[in-house]
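User: Can you predict the 3D structure for this chain?
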Amino acid sequence: MSAFSLAALIVGGERLRVHLGSVSEKQEHAPDKPQDAAPVLTPSAIGSQQEKSVPAATAPRPVRKGLVRLDGRTFADGDGQYLAVGTSLFWALWGYQHDRQRLERHLDYLSKHGVDYIRVFGVIGPRWADRVIDPRGHAWDQHLAGLLDLAHGTFGLRVELTIWQDTDLTPTPGDRTALVDRIAAIVAPRPQTVQYLEIANEGYATGWTDKKAEAQQLATRLRTKTPHIVAVTSPGSLDPAEIASWYGNSSANLLTPHLPRDVVGEGLVGQWRYVRQTWDPWLASGLAWTNDEGKGPQASVAADDDPLRLVMYAGLTWLCGGAGFVLHTGAGVGGGDAASKDRGRVANIWEVANIEQTLAGVAAMRNLLPADLPNWRRHNSNERFSGYPWDTQPISQLIEKNQLVRAFAATADDGRIVAMPISVSVPVPYAPRFPMHVDVHDPMTGKRLESYDGPFTLSPRRAAVLIGQRR
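Assistant: Here is the predicted structure, written as structure tokens:
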């Protein structure tokens, strides 16, 4: 399909998409291998929403300091390593220009609910008519700088800037190179405000398929001109050749996949499928990665507002080597734009179904897990993974019978162990391969439920987090 016809499918920021292909079952069962470490403008009619009151929340967490960098597969800054939590707020720059008061309410809400960064679009063309962000003219530079300063300086939130939603307003390579240089100049005096930079949103579907070389050159240019982590785009699948076609000739150092969101399989297997596919990116690429736009409440492509599945989605992102988890919501896409209204989406984050429980659960999960977890060695529960801490045969048999969806684990060189069984329909025997102590935790609260010093049987439950130490 031509770039023009692909772009024509974009309506209100949404599009018909080619779903990311999952890593094959053969790859999933691959054996252990080395693992890398301005003035406020009057709100438009569509921008102004009838807002429900914002729920009360805890005080913001202390503001993290310094430049964000990669320490292996883990994010780190002046305060050390951390498991990063983001959320989609594509319309934030538009909101800074047109609906600043409501934007500030969102930033305040997110900062008080454990979010570290927001994912923001820098350029949106005229096909998304009520959310256009036009970079032509230097007011755009002032607005982007103002958003960065507002988000971090007032609310302690960093920004993942995805520069292009589409390229209509920067039609030539010269236009796009000039914009990248402007962004480098904007972020230079405020490096602490940036989580990472991304060239394009879903380049395979937004007019970049004939510009792959250019996209990689622009990413390299940003890496040269700034100290920041840089991604090219989400590739069209997790096929290594597809990833290489977008990243192979670039110095970009972060992969930002949009994992599959479709339901394949019946019952619990289908419901949990998107959660277990966090396993796939590290097998497909040696790059550090983030779960950048997945399934979520009223989200694009397919939605899920089940708090436990979303909390396990975050936890397994980190266990499977992901540096950051971005909670993707319908309210974060357009913030009440016309297309979102037509889809029945709520306009504001605090109106999202189960959002309080979900964000509290993600915070509890993060507090439970070690900050260096993405750098550990990962293991699937089958005989090909000799480092799996328990006997794999009984566990893999339950998975084959669809009585357990998955039971991924990770181990550190100092003997620490983390495992996350999901959708446990029958008792699961855990027979340790070496002496260890294991605590079983509630994923939603982090509360310790059980403790064991030898073999044990995990009773049926939707999910659990096992934290252990080799002895």
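Residues 1-27, 36-51 have pLDDT under 50 and may be disordered. Residues 264 and 270 are 5 Å apart (CA to CA).
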